[in-house]
Amino acid sequence: MSLFVTGTDTGVGKTHTVVQLLRLLRASGLRCAGVKPICCGDRSDAQLLLAAGSDGLTVDEINPVWLKIPAAPFAAGLIEQVDIDIPRILETLIDLQRRFDCVIVEGVGGWLVPIRADYFVSDLAAEMKLPVLVVARNRLGCLNHSMLTINSVRDRGLKCAGLVLNNLGQEDIAISTNADILKRIVDVPVVSELSENMTELPPEWGQITTCS
């Protein structure tokens, strides 16, 4: 099983979702690797994925491109005068797919974040040809952002494996109704966040984790 995890925005809980998914898949007996193809700023996301995955990997293997500027990859690459090596990223995925049962790729920022002037996160996902799991923060505006991202995933000819809603704020009317509304207007699995106290994947995640 391989998945590409993207977000409706930055800071929506992609890393949290991937870490918990890796942890629970490993608990089921699978060898798993989390991949952060591009880090901008620090490498904390990649370090978390490394710790959550199976043994036998280094941070350089799961994070082949590390830009030190905390900005979009295109901006960071321009400042650092680095040409982001897309073939190297794709080779990393192929290598890990050979070695592990499950490979979960976490994109950088949101779906249309620029990596180059003419190349976006969506282009990277399309080259990887993986089902895409969309992560959204459950808040006002979530309906619009989720629909735009899901439709854009499909416009690239990719399968949307599902939508994850992460609750990162206090309950309000939008937060309490978003999940129900999304289940009525999208035809992909809409699932709640994975928490650290779970010992196995909830049944509703079955459609996502068997997607290939």
What does this structure look like?
With 212 residues, the chain is α/β, with parallel strands linked by helices. The chain has one domain: Rossmann fold, CATH 3.40.50. The protein is 42% helix and 22% strand. The protein is built from nine helices and ten strands. It has helices spanning 14-27, 44-52, 59-62, 73-80, 86-99, 121-128, 142-155, 173-185, 206-209; strands spanning 2-7, 32-35, 38-40, 65-67, 102-110, 114-116, 119-120, 132-137, 160-166, 190-192. The chain has a six-stranded parallel beta sheet with strand order 2-5-1-8-9-10, with helices on both faces. It has a two-stranded parallel ribbon with strand order 3-4. Strands 6-7 form a two-stranded antiparallel sheet. α7 links the parallel β8 and β9 (160-166). α1 runs parallel beside α2. It is globular, with a radius of gyration of 16 Å.
List keywords for this structure.
globular, 6-stranded parallel beta sheet, alpha/beta, two-stranded parallel sheet, 22% strand, 212 residues
What integer value in Å does the Rg equal? 16 Å
Structural class: alpha/beta
Which architecture per CATH? 3-Layer(aba) Sandwich
Shape: globular
Q: Roughly how much helix do the residues carry, as a percent range? A: 40-55%
Instruction: Indicate the low-confidence ranges by residue numbers.
Output: none
- Spell out the CATH superfamily: P-loop containing nucleotide triphosphate hydrolases
